[in-house]
């Protein structure tokens, strides 16, 4: 099962926030933003910072994709 952060990036677009602007607001690194862009794993601490900054729940920023859907 993989994680997809498309919901997070859509939320940023909907709120008119640029990626690097958000990284500064949330206190996360550019490398972490790059990992999110590539749908790679990030720590729960990072996900918590994102949710606190955007005042949202974790299911508002990510979804799990089963291996079956990818094929």
TrEMBL record:
<dbReference type="InterPro" id="IPR010982">
    <property type="entry name" value="Lambda_DNA-bd_dom_sf"/>
</dbReference>
<feature type="domain" description="HTH cro/C1-type">
    <location>
        <begin position="21"/>
        <end position="61"/>
    </location>
</feature>
<protein>
    <submittedName>
        <fullName>Helix-turn-helix transcriptional regulator</fullName>
    </submittedName>
</protein>
<dbReference type="InterPro" id="IPR001387">
    <property type="entry name" value="Cro/C1-type_HTH"/>
</dbReference>
<dbReference type="Pfam" id="PF13443">
    <property type="entry name" value="HTH_26"/>
</dbReference>
<dbReference type="GO" id="GO:0003677">
    <property type="term" value="F:DNA binding"/>
</dbReference>
